[in-house]
Amino acid sequence: MSRPPVRLGDRAFRGAATAAGVTILVVLAGVALFLILEAWPAFTADRADLPDRKNLLAWIAPLAFGTVLGATIAVLLAAPMAVAIALYITHYAPRRLAGPLGLTIDLLAAVPSIIYGLWGIAVLAPTSVGLSRWLENNLGFLPFFDGPATSTGRTMLVVGIVLGVMILPVVTAVAREVFKQTPALHQEAALALGATRWEIIRMTVLPFGRSGIVSGAMLGLGRALGETMAVAIILSASGAVTFDLISRENSGTIAANIALDFPESSGVKVHALIASGLVLFAITLAVNVVARAIVNRRREFSGAD
């Protein structure tokens, strides 16, 4: 039996989609090549010419550590809240409320990062001082709250909270769409067995959406890793490597450090900043590759919609 002829529109769309995919790969490879070429002089430069007269690895390591730490705090705070919001919108909220609530959450992604930064430095930072002192007094035995608590509130804890609010729409959107795709057959079968609404969610919705939740959280992590202005406005960085989230000693982040130092840098210091950008590029790429791998490994449940 002969195959039906492929229509011209289908061939044009397939060609355009293929060209778009190849273009993205070429651009990504070009960015990587540019970063490597521009960062190479910093790898071969004398230590005295590098920022703070440190070895390049010793200079970048605290920045990479702070970048990962702040983004991790954001994901730990945002992911549970995003799952709860997505479950409420898809399974609990009335239909007339679910639509506007979902739209409101999505609109949070349109707020410029500098607005979040101003909110963090003007409102959240002063408010967090009392919390930081309480954490130091009651949980000071943990390395995260060892103190001494800063009196300004410009801490990694505040940065993590602000980044968590920023990535909340991303994680919520992914979780919401995954929960909507839960096969109706599974939910109806659980309901027929006498399961409550929460038991239906626990036995069908959450297992089905587990990989989607993880991938959404990792996409949010990639967003938090590259945040610049909000972190630059809030964080008072000291260049230290520390797990303490409430003290005046804070690890900086790569993106914020580049934004603050690049205009005044020259020579080898510019190449050093680009080298730190290369590290950030590698971290972000690794996070997105892992997220894509999780999405690709997702196993669909059989059942009717």
Helical percent range? over 70%
Shape: flat
- Count, helices: 10
* CATH C-level label: Mainly Alpha
What is the terminal separation in angstroms?
Answer: 32 Å
How many domains is the backbone divided into?
A: 1
The biggest sheet, with number of strands, parallel, antiparallel or mixed sense and barrel status, is: none
What is the name of the CATH superfamily? MetI-like
Overall residue-averaged pLDDT value: 84
Point out poorly predicted stretches.
300-305
Radius of gyration, rounded? 23 Å
Q: In total, how many beta strands?
A: 0
Assembly state of the chains shown:
single chain
Give the ordered list of helices and strands.
Answer: HHHHHHHHHH
- CATH architecture heading: Orthogonal Bundle
User: CATH topology, which one?
Assistant: MetI-like fold
Subcellular location: Cell membrane
Membrane topology: Multi-pass membrane protein
Organism: Sporichthya brevicatena
Domain ABC transmembrane type-1: 64-291
Structure at a glance:
The chain is built from 10 helices and no strands. It is mainly α and 305 residues long. Mean pLDDT is 84; it is low at 300-305.
Question: What would your notes on this structure say?
Answer:
With 305 residues, the protein is mostly helical. It is 72% helix and 0% strand. The chain has helices spanning 8-44, 56-92, 95-107, 113-139, 156-180, 184-192, 197-225, 229-234, 254-261, 268-296. Mean pLDDT is 84; it is low at 300-305.
